[in-house]
Design brief:
Elements: H1 2-23, H2 27-35, H3 37-61, H4 66-77, H5 82-90, H6 95-125, H7 135-159, H8 161-190, H9 194-224, H10 227-238, H11 242-252, H12 260-284
Helix pairs in contact: 1-7, 1-8, 1-11, 2-3, 2-6, 3-4, 3-6, 3-9, 3-10, 4-6, 4-11, 4-12, 5-6, 5-10, 6-7, 6-10, 7-8, 8-12, 9-10, 9-12
Protein name: Bile acid:sodium symporter
Keywords: Membrane, Transmembrane, Transmembrane helix
GO cellular component, one term: membrane
């Protein structure tokens, strides 16, 4: 059951979810990036460079080792997902910027994640580890589940705009259900060792989540002087595509232990994003 879910169900679900990201894109999203590149540049740098560096700092402070360290670092290498787009809408942030960052950073990820993840495995597991990340397979997988579906979704949006608009809320709900099902399956697969891993990785995952959201919001306020864009970058940097991280840790590497930190982070981020949305809306009504 667990192997079928991770090897077949998870890639198919991710293809569906990323098609939804493509269906949320509009031509004006790319026009906005071209006319206001600073906001996109700040968000992309925070996502692609600062977040992985922050993850390494958290791993060092909490002295995470082995699979737990690799799992948290792989999560930090993933782009945002439909969850960040949804919370950007709920918190009255810049939704266009959110969708643009999710999609365009997602195009970059297949070329950065396999190499950085392989480096992390050598760093935290050692060169003699039996677990090795197949670079070509990982790259092709990320292209198939992350890039091509976005392009297909954009074509669907252009051809059937009304269908794309109606499908968006359903796809967002579906992505949350898939993530929760995965987390339950991983917990079942780990059995009695689950609580041990949770105690080790939980504080680190929470710290990374809160620091990454604070970093994104602070950079947006400092460099862009825009409350809406600051909220967007906060959510894009703080809410990672946990489903993609679990595809790598469970589907490609087949390591339940490596999936613990991404699973814990994915659960915690819903709580922190909800609190941030409540705070942002309350701040906006003042």
């Amino acid at each position: 059951m667990f192997e079928t879910l991770t090897q077949i169900g998870l890639p198919l679900a991710l293809i569906f979810i990323m098609t939804g990201v493509g269906m949320s894109l509009r031509p004006q999203n790319f026009h906005q990036v071209a006319t206001q590149p600073k906001a996109f540049f700040v968000g992309a740098v925070a996502q692609l460079i600062l977040l992985p560096l922050l993850a390494l700092g958290v791993i060092a402070v909490f002295q995470l080792q082995g699979e737990l360290a690799v799992g948290l670092f792989i999560l930090a290498l993933c782009p945002g997902g439909t969850t960040s787009n949804l919370y950007s809408y709920l918190s009255k942030a810049d939704v266009g910027l959110s969708v643009s960052l999710t999609a365009l950073v997602g195009f970059v990820t297949p070329f950065t994640l396999p190499f950085l993840a392989a480096w992390a495995m050598q760093q935290f597991l050692g060169a003699e580890s039996l677990l090795q990340l197949p670079l070509l397979k990982t790259w092709l997988t990320l292209l198939i589940v992350g890039v091509i579906p976005v392009i297909i979704g954009m074509l669907v949006k252009a051809k059937f705009p009304h269908f794309a608009e109606r499908a968006q809320p359903q796809i967002s709900r579906f992505s949350v259900l898939v993530l929760l099902l995965l987390i339950v399956s991983i917990a079942y697969d780990l059995g009695d060792t689950l609580w041990h891993y949770l105690l080790l990785s939980g504080p680190a995952a929470l710290t990374l989540n809160l620091l990454s959201m604070a970093l994104g919001y602070g950079l947006g306020r400092w460099l862009l002087h825009s409350e809406q864009q600051a909220r967007t970058i906060c959510l894009e940097v703080g809410l990672q595509n946990g489903t993609l991280a679990l595809l790598i840790t469970t589907g490609i590497l087949q390591s339940s232990a490596m999936s613990i930190a991404p699973s814990v982070y994915s659960l915690l981020m819903f709580g922190s994003a909800s609190v941030f949305t409540w705070w942002a809306l309350k701040r906006g009504t003042r």
